Amino acid sequence: RKERTLAMIKPDAVTQIGDIIQMIYSKNLIVTKAKMTKLSWKQAADFYSEHQSKSFFNNLVQFVTSGPMVAMEVMGDEALSTWRKILGPTDSALALKDTPNSLRARFGTDGTKNAAHGSDSLASAARELEFFFPSATGSGPPSTA
Length: 145
Ligand code: CMP
Prior knowledge:
The protein is an alpha+beta fold. The chain has helices at residues 17-26, 41-47, 57-64, 79-87, 92-98, 103-107, 122-132; strands at residues 2-9, 30-37, 69-77, 116-118.
Protein backbone atom coordinates (compact mmCIF):
# COMPACT_ATOMS: atom_id res chain seq x y z
CA ARG A 1 0.00 0.00 0.00
CA LYS A 2 1.39 3.37 -1.00
CA GLU A 3 1.57 5.77 1.94
CA ARG A 4 2.99 9.17 2.91
CA THR A 5 4.62 9.84 6.24
CA LEU A 6 6.46 12.64 7.98
CA ALA A 7 10.15 11.99 8.50
CA MET A 8 11.73 14.65 10.68
CA ILE A 9 15.48 14.98 11.24
CA LYS A 10 16.03 16.50 14.68
CA PRO A 11 18.71 19.11 15.48
CA ASP A 12 21.24 16.51 16.65
CA ALA A 13 21.26 14.75 13.27
CA VAL A 14 20.76 17.52 10.71
CA THR A 15 24.44 17.27 9.70
CA GLN A 16 23.78 13.60 8.81
CA ILE A 17 21.12 14.46 6.22
CA GLY A 18 23.11 12.87 3.40
CA ASP A 19 23.35 9.45 5.03
CA ILE A 20 19.73 9.69 6.19
CA ILE A 21 18.44 10.36 2.67
CA GLN A 22 20.51 7.39 1.46
CA MET A 23 18.85 5.17 4.08
CA ILE A 24 15.41 6.32 2.84
CA TYR A 25 16.13 5.69 -0.86
CA SER A 26 17.84 2.36 -0.15
CA LYS A 27 14.49 1.06 1.17
CA ASN A 28 12.70 2.15 -2.01
CA LEU A 29 11.06 5.18 -0.42
CA ILE A 30 11.28 8.63 -2.01
CA VAL A 31 11.40 12.15 -0.55
CA THR A 32 8.59 14.21 -2.09
CA LYS A 33 8.83 17.38 0.05
CA ALA A 34 11.52 18.83 2.33
CA LYS A 35 11.87 21.90 4.50
CA MET A 36 14.54 23.05 6.94
CA THR A 37 13.13 25.13 9.78
CA LYS A 38 13.81 26.09 13.37
CA LEU A 39 10.62 25.75 15.38
CA SER A 40 9.58 28.21 18.07
CA TRP A 41 8.74 26.84 21.53
CA LYS A 42 5.04 27.29 20.77
CA GLN A 43 5.28 25.48 17.42
CA ALA A 44 7.20 22.55 18.95
CA ALA A 45 4.74 22.30 21.87
CA ASP A 46 1.89 22.24 19.35
CA PHE A 47 3.58 19.60 17.19
CA TYR A 48 4.15 17.37 20.25
CA SER A 49 0.89 18.30 22.04
CA GLU A 50 -0.02 14.63 22.55
CA HIS A 51 2.97 14.43 24.93
CA GLN A 52 2.21 17.59 26.92
CA SER A 53 1.42 15.72 30.13
CA LYS A 54 4.58 13.58 29.98
CA SER A 55 7.53 14.11 32.33
CA PHE A 56 9.88 14.51 29.36
CA PHE A 57 7.80 17.14 27.55
CA ASN A 58 9.89 20.19 28.48
CA ASN A 59 13.15 18.39 27.67
CA LEU A 60 11.71 17.31 24.35
CA VAL A 61 10.57 20.81 23.36
CA GLN A 62 13.88 22.30 24.56
CA PHE A 63 15.78 19.79 22.44
CA VAL A 64 13.79 20.14 19.21
CA THR A 65 13.93 23.95 19.40
CA SER A 66 17.72 23.96 19.97
CA GLY A 67 18.51 24.26 16.25
CA PRO A 68 17.13 23.76 12.76
CA MET A 69 15.32 20.56 11.83
CA VAL A 70 14.52 19.03 8.45
CA ALA A 71 10.94 17.89 7.84
CA MET A 72 10.36 15.59 4.86
CA GLU A 73 7.36 13.98 3.24
CA VAL A 74 8.43 10.41 2.51
CA MET A 75 6.37 8.29 0.14
CA GLY A 76 6.27 4.68 -0.92
CA ASP A 77 4.99 1.22 -0.22
CA GLU A 78 4.35 0.85 3.55
CA ALA A 79 6.14 4.18 4.10
CA LEU A 80 5.04 4.49 7.75
CA SER A 81 6.34 1.14 8.96
CA THR A 82 9.36 1.17 6.63
CA TRP A 83 10.54 4.56 7.91
CA ARG A 84 9.97 3.49 11.53
CA LYS A 85 11.98 0.34 10.86
CA ILE A 86 14.81 2.49 9.46
CA LEU A 87 14.62 4.59 12.66
CA GLY A 88 14.81 1.70 15.13
CA PRO A 89 13.62 1.98 18.77
CA THR A 90 12.76 5.41 20.23
CA ASP A 91 15.66 5.24 22.72
CA SER A 92 18.94 5.54 20.83
CA ALA A 93 20.84 3.82 23.67
CA LEU A 94 18.56 0.79 23.31
CA ALA A 95 18.84 1.00 19.52
CA LEU A 96 22.63 0.77 19.81
CA LYS A 97 22.24 -2.56 21.63
CA ASP A 98 19.38 -4.06 19.59
CA THR A 99 19.62 -2.62 16.07
CA PRO A 100 23.11 -1.13 15.59
CA ASN A 101 22.52 -0.33 11.91
CA SER A 102 19.35 1.67 12.61
CA LEU A 103 19.29 5.42 12.15
CA ARG A 104 18.79 6.14 15.86
CA ALA A 105 21.67 3.81 16.80
CA ARG A 106 23.96 5.50 14.27
CA PHE A 107 23.03 9.15 14.85
CA GLY A 108 21.18 9.51 18.17
CA THR A 109 22.29 9.56 21.80
CA ASP A 110 19.51 8.64 24.25
CA GLY A 111 15.73 8.61 24.78
CA THR A 112 15.28 12.31 24.01
CA LYS A 113 18.17 13.03 21.62
CA ASN A 114 17.18 10.34 19.15
CA ALA A 115 18.07 11.85 15.75
CA ALA A 116 14.72 11.62 13.98
CA HIS A 117 10.97 11.15 14.22
CA GLY A 118 8.38 9.22 12.23
CA SER A 119 4.60 9.42 12.32
CA ASP A 120 3.04 6.56 14.29
CA SER A 121 -0.23 6.23 12.32
CA LEU A 122 -1.84 7.38 9.09
CA ALA A 123 -3.87 9.91 11.11
CA SER A 124 -0.70 11.28 12.76
CA ALA A 125 1.01 11.41 9.37
CA ALA A 126 -1.84 13.48 7.92
CA ARG A 127 -1.72 15.90 10.87
CA GLU A 128 2.07 16.15 10.95
CA LEU A 129 2.42 16.62 7.18
CA GLU A 130 -0.20 19.38 7.33
CA PHE A 131 1.80 20.99 10.17
CA PHE A 132 4.96 21.36 8.07
CA PHE A 133 3.43 21.46 4.58
CA PRO A 134 0.04 23.17 4.84
CA SER A 135 -2.34 22.54 1.94
CA ALA A 136 -2.64 25.46 -0.42
CA THR A 137 -5.79 27.50 0.02
CA GLY A 138 -7.27 29.88 -2.50
CA SER A 139 -6.44 29.88 -6.19
CA GLY A 140 -3.39 32.11 -6.44
CA PRO A 141 0.19 31.10 -7.15
CA PRO A 142 2.26 29.48 -4.37
CA SER A 143 3.45 31.95 -1.78
CA THR A 144 7.13 32.82 -1.90
CA ALA A 145 7.07 34.26 1.63
P1 CMP B 1 9.63 10.98 18.75
O1 CMP B 1 9.55 9.80 17.87
O2 CMP B 1 9.88 12.30 18.12
O3 CMP B 1 8.30 11.09 19.62
C1 CMP B 1 8.26 11.72 20.87
C2 CMP B 1 9.63 12.06 21.40
O4 CMP B 1 9.69 12.25 22.80
C3 CMP B 1 10.56 10.89 21.15
O5 CMP B 1 10.83 10.76 19.78
C4 CMP B 1 11.73 11.29 22.05
O6 CMP B 1 12.53 12.31 21.46
C5 CMP B 1 10.97 11.84 23.24
N1 CMP B 1 10.76 10.81 24.26
C6 CMP B 1 9.94 9.75 24.17
N2 CMP B 1 10.00 9.01 25.28
C7 CMP B 1 10.84 9.62 26.11
C8 CMP B 1 11.31 9.34 27.42
N3 CMP B 1 10.86 8.29 28.11
N4 CMP B 1 12.18 10.17 27.96
C9 CMP B 1 12.60 11.25 27.28
N5 CMP B 1 12.22 11.58 26.04
C10 CMP B 1 11.34 10.77 25.44
